[in-house]
C-alpha cells in the first residue's frame, strides 16, 4: 500500500474516532446550507412598503365609466410587496429606521388627474439606501405597470366615448365644461342637403374617410395598449426547497465546508503531533502527504454527497415531486463531488500548511469557507468583482457541475467545462500546498 | 579507515536572520556513541533533526550509509491511535515486512500498553517509550536520540541505555543530545555546542 493510502487510512480512522467532531462537521454545513437557503428565500420574500394616501382615495373609484374598488385592485396587483397604510410622518419614520423599505405616496389631486383621463397622475416612490432598494424599485414599477393595465380599460372606454361623440355627435363634458358636438354622421347628413359642387364633394369624401377611420379606433387603442399580452399558467414545478439549484447548493456547501476544514486540520495536525518530522525522513514525500489530504477530502465528500443526494431523492420520490430524482445521474454527480472535494481539499492542505497549527487551521478554514460560499452565490450582474473572484475558487464550479450532472438534459458540455476548471484550480492549489507543507517542518 | 555510517558535511540551518546552527561537520562510525552537550538553544536538536532528515539544512549535506532511527525531543506519534496502531502504521511506512509482528515485539520490549487506548492518553513515560520504540522500527544501525530519558524513571532510563549500548555493541552508532551530565558516561565522544556552534570548551565550562 502506498504511503499516501496509509496516511489516508490513518486519517479516516482518526476521524471515525471523533464522533463529536464528525457530527459537528456534518451538522454545521447542513445548518449553513439551510441558512443560505433562508437568505435566498428572503430574496424572494415580500418586502414591507408603506402606502401613504394623501388624496383620501374613496373605496370605489370611477374612471371612464369603469368602477374600481381601489384596495381590491391594490391587493390583487401588489403580490410582490406587502403594502401597509401609514400616515406620511409615520412612513418617513419607518423608512429612516428601515422598518419599511420604501414609501409610495398618493399625492393630493391624484384622483382628479386620474378621472380626467387626459393627464397622467403621479405616484411618489421613496426607497431606503439598503440592498433591497433596487428590487423594491423594480417591484413598484411592476405594481404601477399592473395598475396601469387595470386602468387602461377605463381610459380606453373614456377615449372611445369621445370618439363616439365625434362620430355620432351629441352633448359632451370635458375638463368641467359642457358642450354640444355636431358629429361626423350629422355633418355628412348636413352636407347631403347642401348643393353639390366640387368643394362639398371633397368635404363629404373627407367625412366619409374620417368615419371609417374612427370606426377602427376601439380595436386600435386596445392593440396599442397591449401589443403583447402575457397569459400566465398556474405553476406545477417543484417547491423551492426541493429545486435542483438548492440540491446543488446543499451538496456544494457541505462538501466545500467539510473538505476545506478536514484537509486544513489534518495537514496542520501532522505538525501539531510532531509526526511531520518522522514522515519527512524518506517515509512519505511531500507530494504524497498533500495527496493523502486531498484523498481524505474526496472520500469524506463522496460519502456525504451520496448521503445528501439519497436523502433528497427519498424526499422527492416520497412526495411524488414533478420530475422525480434523477437516480441514473447519481454516478456522474458523485464523480463531480469527488473532484470538487479534492480541489477544495488541496486548498485546505494549503491553509493547513500556512496556519501550521490545527486549531488555527480550523478557525481559518471556517473564516475562509463562508466568503467562498457567498462569493459563489453572488450573481454575475450584481457584483462583477465577486463573480471574477469566485471564478478562481472551486465552489461556484462545483454548484454548476452538480446542477448540470443532476438535471441538464445535455450535461456534458457544462460538466466538461466545470471539470476542467476544477482540475485546474485543484492542480494550482496542490502545487501551492506542496510548497507550503515544506514549511511545516521548519 | 572505517567508513562512517552517517556523515554531515558543513550542515547549517538558518531561520530568517537567526542562525540556529553554524556550518558543522560530524561523522558517526560503527561502534561509537557521541554525546551532544550544550545549554538550551545550543543547536543540538537542530543538528539531530538534520542528521535524521526531518529538516533540510540551509547549507551542507548529509550522507547516510545505514538505516537511521530518530527519537525526537517531543514524542511524535498520532495521539488518537493506540501504541500498537502507531507502531504498525510506521512499520508499514518504513517498509517492514511483518509490521504486526514488529509492533508486537516492540510493545513487549518496551512494556507498552497493548490495548486500544489512544496513545495521547498514555502516561508521559509510556509516550516517551513509544517514541523510542518507533525509532527502532526497521532495525536501524544508527540511532539519534534527542534527550530521550527526560521524562523517564530510573528503570526506564536504564532500559533505553541498554538498547543504545546493544546497538553500539552490534556495530551500530548512537548520537544523543543531553543536558544531563551523568549520561555523558555512555558516550565514547562528546561534542559541546553553544549558540549554534561546536566549541572547544569542556562541559563544566559550558554549564558554569
Describe what you observe in this structure.
The complex is a heterodimer of chains A (442) and B (208). The model of chain A has no long low-confidence stretch (mean pLDDT 81). In chain A, helix 1 (3-16) crosses helix 12 (286-318) and helix 12 crosses helix 13. Chain A has 17 helices and eight strands. In chain A, 67% of the residues lie in helices and 8% in strands. A four-stranded mixed β-sheet of chain A has the order 4-1-5-6, with helices on both faces. Chain A is an alpha/beta fold and 442 residues long. Chain A has helices spanning 3-16, 19-43, 70-77, 88-97, 110-116, 133-168, 184-192, 198-215, 217-225, 244-272, 275-280, 286-318, 330-355, 358-377, 384-391, 394-407, 412-436; strands at 48-53, 60-63, 66-69, 82-85, 102-106, 124-127, 170-174, 177-181. In chain A, 32% of the residues are buried. In chain A, strand 7 and strand 8 form a beta hairpin. Chain A is elongated. By secondary structure, chain B is α/β, with parallel strands linked by helices. Chain B folds into two domains: 6-66 and 141-207, P-loop containing nucleotide triphosphate hydrolases (Rossmann fold), CATH 3.40.50.300; 78-133, no CATH class. Chain B is built from six helices and nine strands. Chain B has a six-stranded mixed β-sheet, with helices on both faces. In chain B, a hairpin with a 2-residue loop joins strand 1 (6-15) and strand 2. The longest helix of chain B is centred in the C-terminal third of the chain and has 16 residues, at 154-169. The chains are: A alpha/beta (442), B alpha/beta (208). The A-B interface holds A 1, 3, 6, 10, 13-14, 17-18, 273-275, 277-284, 438, 441-442 and B 15, 49, 52-56, 68, 70, 72, 74-81, 85, 89-90, 92-94, 118, 134.
Amino acid at each position: 500500500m502506498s504511503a499516501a493510502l496509509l496516511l489516508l487510512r490513518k486519517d479516516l480512522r482518526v476521524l471515525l474516532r471523533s464522533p463529536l467532531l464528525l457530527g459537528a462537521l456534518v451538522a454545521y454545513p447542513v445548518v449553513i446550507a439551510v441558512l443560505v437557503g433562508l437568505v435566498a428565500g428572503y430574496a424572494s420574500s415580500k418586502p414591507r412598503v408603506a402606502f401613504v394616501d394623501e388624496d383620501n382615495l374613496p373605496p370605489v373609484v370611477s374612471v371612464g365609466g369603469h368602477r374600481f374598488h381601489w384596495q381590491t385592485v391594490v391587493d390583487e396587483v401588489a403580490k410582490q410587496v406587502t403594502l401597509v397604510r401609514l400616515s406620511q410622518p409615520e412612513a418617513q419614520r419607518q423608512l429612516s429606521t428601515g422598518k419599511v423599505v420604501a414609501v409610495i405616496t398618493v399625492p393630493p389631486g391624484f384622483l382628479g388627474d386620474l378621472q380626467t383621463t387626459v393627464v397622467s397622475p403621479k405616484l411618489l416612490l421613496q426607497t431606503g439606501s439598503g440592498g433591497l432598494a433596487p428590487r423594491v424599485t423594480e417591484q413598484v414599477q411592476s405594481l404601477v405597470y399592473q395598475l396601469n393595465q387595470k386602468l387602461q380599460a377605463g381610459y380606453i372606454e373614456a377615449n372611445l366615448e369621445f370618439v363616439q361623440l365625434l362620430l355620432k355627435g351629441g352633448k359632451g363634458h370635458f375638463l368641467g365644461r359642457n358642450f354640444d358636438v355636431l358629429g361626423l354622421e350629422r355633418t355628412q347628413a348636413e352636407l347631403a342637403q347642401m348643393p353639390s359642387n366640387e368643394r362639398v364633394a371633397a368635404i363629404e369624401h373627407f367625412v366619409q374617410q374620417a368615419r371609417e377611420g374612427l370606426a377602427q379606433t376601439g380595436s386600435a387603442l386596445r392593440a396599442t395598449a397591449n401589443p403583447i399580452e402575457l397569459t400566465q399558467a398556474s405553476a406545477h414545478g417543484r417547491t423551492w426547497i426541493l429545486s435542483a439549484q438548492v440540491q446543488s447548493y446543499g451538496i456544494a456547501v457541505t462538501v466545500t465546508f467539510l473538505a476545506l476544514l478536514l484537509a486544513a486540520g489534518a495537514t496542520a495536525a501532522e505538525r501539531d503531533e510532531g509526526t511531520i518530522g518522522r514522515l519527512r525522513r524518506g517515509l512519505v514525500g511531500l507530494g504524497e502527504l498533500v495527496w493523502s489530504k486531498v484523498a481524505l477530502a474526496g472520500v469524506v465528500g463522496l460519502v456525504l454527497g451520496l448521503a445528501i443526494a439519497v436523502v433528497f431523492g427519498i424526499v422527492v420520490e416520497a412526495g411524488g415531486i414533478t420530475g422525480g430524482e434523477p437516480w441514473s445521474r447519481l454516478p456522474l454527480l458523485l464523480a463531480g463531488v469527488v473532484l470538487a472535494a479534492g480541489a477544495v481539499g488541496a486548498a485546505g492542505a494549503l491553509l493547513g500548511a500556512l496556519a501550521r497549527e490545527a486549531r488555527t487551521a480550523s478557525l481559518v478554514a471556517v473564516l475562509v469557507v463562508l466568503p467562498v460560499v457567498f462569493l459563489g452565490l453572488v450573481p454575475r450582474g450584481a457584483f462583477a468583482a465577486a463573480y471574477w473572484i469566485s471564478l478562481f475558487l472551486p465552489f461556484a464550479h462545483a454548484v454548476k457541475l452538480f446542477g448540470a450532472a443532476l438535471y441538464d438534459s445535455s450535461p456534458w458540455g457544462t460538466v466538461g467545462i466545470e471539470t476542467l476548471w476544477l482540475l485546474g484550480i485543484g492542480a494550482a492549489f496542490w502545487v501551492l500546498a506542496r510548497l507550503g507543507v515544506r514549511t511545516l517542518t521548519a | 579507515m572505517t567508513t562512517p555510517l552517517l556523515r554531515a558535511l558543513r550542515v547549517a540551518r538558518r531561520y530568517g536572520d537567526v542562525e540556529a546552527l553554524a556550518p558543522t561537520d560530524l561523522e558517526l562510525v560503527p561502534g561509537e556513541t557521541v554525546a551532544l552537550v550544550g545549554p538550551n538553544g545550543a543547536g543540538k536538536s537542530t543538528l539531530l533533526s538534520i542528521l535524521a532528515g526531518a529538516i533540510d539544512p540551509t547549507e551542507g549535506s548529509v550522507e547516510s550509509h545505514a538505516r537511521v532511527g530518530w527519537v525526537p525531543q517531543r514524542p511524535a506519534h498520532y495521539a488518537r491511535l493506540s501504541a500498537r496502531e502507531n507502531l504498525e502504521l510506521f512499520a508499514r511506512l518504513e517498509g517492514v515486512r511483518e509490521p504486526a509482528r514488529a509492533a508486537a515485539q516492540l510493545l513487549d520490549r518496551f512494556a507498552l500498553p497493548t490495548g486500544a487506548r489512544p496513545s495521547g492518553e498514555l502516561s508521559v513515560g509510556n509516550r516517551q517509550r513509544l517514541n523510542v520504540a518507533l525509532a527502532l522500527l526497521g532495525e536501524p544501525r544508527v540511532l539519534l536520540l534527542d534527550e530521550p530519558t527526560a521524562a523517564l524513571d530510573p528503570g526506564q532510563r536504564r532500559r533505553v541505555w541498554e538498547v543504545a549500548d546493544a546497538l553500539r555493541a552490534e556495530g551500530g552508532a548512537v548520537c544523543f543530545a543531553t543536558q544531563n551530565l551523568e549520561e555523558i558516561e555512555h558516550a565514547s565522544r562528546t561534542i559541546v555546542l553553544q549558540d549554534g556552534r561546536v566549541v572547544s570548551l569542556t562541559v563544566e565550562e559550558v554549564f558554569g
